[in-house]
C-alpha cells in the first residue's frame, strides 16, 4: 500500500495527497471527495478500500487519519450541480474542491482513477484505494463523511431507507421511489436512465 508513495518520495516528493470520491453511483444525494496528505513513515494497519471495511473499522480509521494526517480536505458537490454538469464532472469538481481545501500545497496527487483539474503533478491509479495508503485514507474520509450525511438525510426523508443503502440503487430503494416518488435529493437524470435501461416505472 506504500509502493507509490515510496517511489515518489525517492523522487523528492514529500507532500503526497491521496484523492478519492464517494457517491458517484448513487441515485440520491451529494457526491463527496476527500484529499489526504499523510506523514512519511506512517503505516496505517488495516487501511484499505473503504467499501471493504466494516463500519466500526472505518469509523476508527477515520479518527486516526484525522489525528495523524498533515492535512485533510473535503469537497462536496450537491444534486443540482450534479444534474447540471453530469456526475463525472461533479466528481472531478468535488476532488478539486477537496485538494484546494487541504490548506497546504501538495507536491503530487495520487488519484483514484481520475484526473483532478489543478496545476499539480498527478497520477491516476486504477483501483487506487486498494493499492495506495494515501488514496485509501482519502476513501475512508470521504465514505465516513458521506455516510454521516446519509444519516441526516434519512431523518429528513425516512421513507427511502437512506441510512441503510446510502442512496444506491438497491431493490429496497427502487421500490421506495416507486411508492413515494423521487424526492428533491434524488438525481432525476439517474432515475430516467434506470427507467430506460431496466424499464422500471418510478
Q: Can you characterise this structure?
A:
It is a single chain. The radius of gyration is 17 Å and the shape is globular. Helix 2 packs across helix 5 and helix 3 crosses helix 4. The protein has 202 residues and is of the alpha/beta class. It has a five-stranded mixed sheet with strand order 3-2-1-4-5. The longest helix has 24 residues. It has a single domain, classed as Nucleotidyltransferase, domain 5. InterPro entries: RNase_HII, RNase_HII/HIII, RNase_HII/HIII_dom, RNaseH-like_sf, RNaseH_sf. Its cofactor is Mg(2+); Mn(2+). This is Ribonuclease HII. Its EC number is 3.1.26.4.
- Give the spatial strand order of the biggest sheet: 3-2-1-4-5
| E-strand count | 5
Question: Which stretches of 5+ consecutive residues score pLDDT under 50?
Answer: none
What's the architecture, going by CATH? 2-Layer Sandwich
Q: State the fourth-level CATH superfamily.
A: Ribonuclease H-like superfamily/Ribonuclease H
Biggest beta sheet summary:
5 strands, mixed
User: Which descriptor suits the 3D outline?
Assistant: globular
Question: At the first level of CATH, what is the class?
Answer: Alpha Beta
Count of DSSP-assigned helices: 8
**Class derived from helix and strand content:** alpha/beta
> Roughly what is the average pLDDT, rounded to an integer?
94
Determine the oligomeric state from the structure.
Answer: single chain
Radius of gyration: 17 Å
- Roughly what percent helix? 40-55%
- What's the number of structural domains? 1
- Report the portion of residues in β strands: 5-15%
CATH T-level topology: Nucleotidyltransferase, domain 5
Amino acid at each position: 500500500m506504500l509502493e507509490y508513495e515510496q517511489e515518489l518520495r525517492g523522487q523528492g516528493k514529500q507532500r503526497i495527497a491521496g484523492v478519492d470520491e464517494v457517491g458517484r453511483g448513487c441515485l440520491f444525494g451529494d457526491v463527496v471527495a476527500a484529499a489526504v496528505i499523510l506523514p512519511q513513515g506512517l503505516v496505517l494497519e488495516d487501511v484499505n478500500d473503504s467499501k471493504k471495511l466494516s463500519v466500526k473499522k472505518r469509523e476508527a480509521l477515520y479518527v486516526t487519519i484525522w489525528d495523524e494526517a498533515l492535512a485533510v480536505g473535503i469537497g462536496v458537490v450537491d444534486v443540482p450541480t450534479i444534474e447540471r454538469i453530469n456526475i463525472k464532472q461533479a466528481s472531478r469538481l468535488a476532488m478539486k474542491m477537496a485538494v484546494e481545501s487541504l490548506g497546504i500545497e501538495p507536491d503530487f496527487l495520487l488519484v483514484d482513477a481520475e484526473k483532478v483539474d489543478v496545476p499539480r503533478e498527478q497520477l491516476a491509479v486504477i483501483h487506487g484505494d486498494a493499492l495506495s495508503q494515501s488514496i485509501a485514507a482519502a476513501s475512508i474520509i470521504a465514505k465516513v463523511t458521506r455516510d454521516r450525511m446519509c444519516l441526516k438525510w434519512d431523518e429528513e426523508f425516512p421513507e427511502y431507507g437512506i441510512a441503510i443503502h446510502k442512496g444506491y440503487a438497491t431493490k429496497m430503494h427502487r421500490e421506495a421511489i416507486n411508492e413515494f416518488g423521487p424526492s428533491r435529493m434524488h438525481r432525476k437524470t439517474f432515475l430516467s436512465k434506470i427507467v430506460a435501461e431496466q424499464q422500471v416505472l418510478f
